[in-house]
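Q: I'm writing up a methods section and want to include an example of the input and output format. Could you take the sequence below and give the corresponding predicted structure tokens, formatted cleanly so I can copy it straight into the document?
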Amino acid sequence: MSAYGLDKVFNARSVALVGVSQRERSLGRLVLDNLRRGGFSGPIHIVHPKHKEIDGISTVPSLGRLGEVPDLVVVTTGPAAVPQIVAEAAAKGVGATVIITAGLGHGPGSLAEQCVTAAKPHGLRIIGPNVLGLLIPQLKLNASFAASSPKAGNLALVSQSGAIAAGLIEWSIKHSVGFSGIVSLGDAVDVDFGDLLDHFALDAQTKAILLYIEAVTAPAKFLSAARAAARVKPVIAIKAGRQAQGAKAAATHTGALAGSDAVYDAVLRRAGILRVMELEDLFVAAEALARTTTLPGPNLGILTNGGGVGVLAVDHLIELGGTLSDLSADTIGRLGAFLPSGWSGSNPVDIIGDADGDRYAKSLEVLLSDPGSDAVLVLNVATALAAPVESARSVAKIVGENGRGGRAKPVFAGWIAESSEAAKVFEEANIPHYATESDAVEGFIHLVHFGRTRQELMETPPAVPSEFEPDVSRACRAMERALAEGGGWLNTIEIGELLSAYAIRAVEAVLAKDGEDAHAKAATLLARYSTLAAKIVSGDIVHKSDIGGVLLNLNTAERVQQAADEIFRRAKEKRPAARIQGILLQPMIVRPQAHELIAGIAEDPTFGPIIAFGAGGTAVEIIGDKALGLPPLDLRCALDLVSRTRVSRLLSGYRNVQPADRQEIALTLVKLSQMAADLPELREVDLNPLLADCEGVMALDARAYVSPVKRGEQRTHGSRLSIRPYPSGWRRQFTLSDRTNVLMRPIKPEDEPALTNFFSKVTENDLRLRFFGPVRTLTHSFLARLTQIDYGRAMAFVAIAPSSEILGIVNLFADSAYVTGEFAVIVRSDIKGRGLGWALMRLILDYAKAEGLKAITGQILRENRTMITMSQELGFSIESLPGLPNIVRARFDLAKMR
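A: Here is the clean output for your methods example:
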């Protein structure tokens, strides 16, 4: 996915500055000084209406008077002048502008909005306003007012805070860490996290992406870009404002659980982003990511010259969820052959305080070959018996040899209170190094956690059981009354209908209008159940137990009538204005081994519907055992949600308590997720308590709130969800020329095995024509990227034969501005010529048109005459590509489609 229009930003050959003054230390002058001091080799133009030259550089009075079109315009003028400057830049054809100026305001009528209005029709991209600036070290471009210029490297930094970006620059210089790019977003009226994640994901210079987030303003775009980026390289984020929970009182227990920071935590997890909590953690993670190519497993071998520091490292490792590796007998024997008799004999490998460089080198070489260790942490405490720098050199030598041998097992160094000399040795050897054992352990754990996150992103989720077919029309009918009244709480009967429509099992319920009615209906229920519960039913009384509105263990009709009268009395006394619909009678469910859980849907103002799960009951907020996830959920995501709670351990069973049915619990969460996708008017659902045991799950109590969808609430293509649900409406039937009927539908994650089989039946030459080179193996990682799409900016249709085999696939990837898309198509070699390629291309054209794209393009090898001919017959234009004589581009203007 290309980051629309950002090529001029990250490949800038010329810069124009607007707002530079004669005054020393002025904002514009600082930017000019940084550009010149940084060594930017391209032309630097200064625009000033009064001065003929500034600091030896000739000026022009306006952008329009420049002899060339600069790639980048940097603005530091006063706020009032900025919209006109942006308009001039846009009219001249400038690619991008960095607005460092603050104070442009927000929203309709603001100066910031005027800038966007002027820029958008011309495709001018805006970074800012209110930013530190832009730094691209490999271009020696420092268009900022940062105090220093970082060196070139492989970390990208995107920060909403200019101060945080400036701090990281200073840290990077101290630690000799380099950047591929640093972008301060500021008010982000145009270029945002999504754009920059797209760019840096595909940037060959960038190995990992660091984010400093205060708030996400385009949630669907952010999630789509983040999930794509995290599949190819580490993305690490720190989210500020963890304690800003907001003062809104939640109407349900589920709503109370969904605090803003917990939602962000769920969002970052779903996106595959590793979250760190402190700025220092970001530095620690950056050190590890900048210097490590392999994502290790959790088993760590520790080499140290001090037993105490080794024990501290082990403690911290276990606290963070790592594992101290068990050294093999061969490893212990090889170490014992040369280490002094007083060595530890186990992991941590304590090689005694007098260890010199040679002892470190021999020990490290053995540990690196130990099969049970995924990485090695080397610790050193300075003593008068051996020089730390000598030991550092020995470690660096072995690490270099380890890498050349193709074994590349990660090594982390913890040189306690390290000297600058030792640090320089590690930096030259590209070894992550830290001044404390705890930071070194944390650097290792960050990589372990990201490795797990990457693996989860690449896993193929199980399909939702085919027997789950929600009755959406029935659910909609259950909401009709409340929606006709402008929104509100569903009554008991409506909730029962809603849950039944989604096959969520709930306890039988009968509504009684008063005590006498309760007596009559209780008699019928008690013929089947031994005891009943009576509960107040009122949309104005959210938590029934707060007013004594729940009475239990009622075993006669008379007691039920007395309970109903008592509940009415209490409600009128404590909530005289409440509108009471009646008394709900339910059988008391006796499941002595069942756990009380909570599951539901809550509403987040930024990310929309959220699925909540945790320990339930009346004290749910006090217990605070919760996990949140973004719909849509598959079973893997739902099982992960369950596993992230403390109650999950109880669900596994203990003593004489049988394990609860986790699959059924997870399926209930998937059903709630499907509700959120199907029913945009459904704002909150609260299943509490949700009983779970070995027999399955049952909702004992439920609440649901609905309200009409307002304009502007859609986040992804008409949906309130931030992650687009599976587009099941795009299923089409097609008959091949040999009369074979095929189903064309959007791809699913569970299609990966069938896709593997599909590619095994495509010839080497057809694979070469599709992928522009020889294809030896198609890895799980590659196939996961094809099958696990979020449908937000990507689509893939597969053609399925009656035998369930895949016969063909067509892909479409839209740019970040959702203006154009790039297609690719391939058909199984043994069925070419039967019209399937044509049908798939027609389908992707129809889809792109319906999505509002302006055009789709595709690159084709010039020798692929069949594909070129078919594209021309479909209405594509074919054009040559400068500098690529073997490739042509096919382009289809979707405005031509009827």
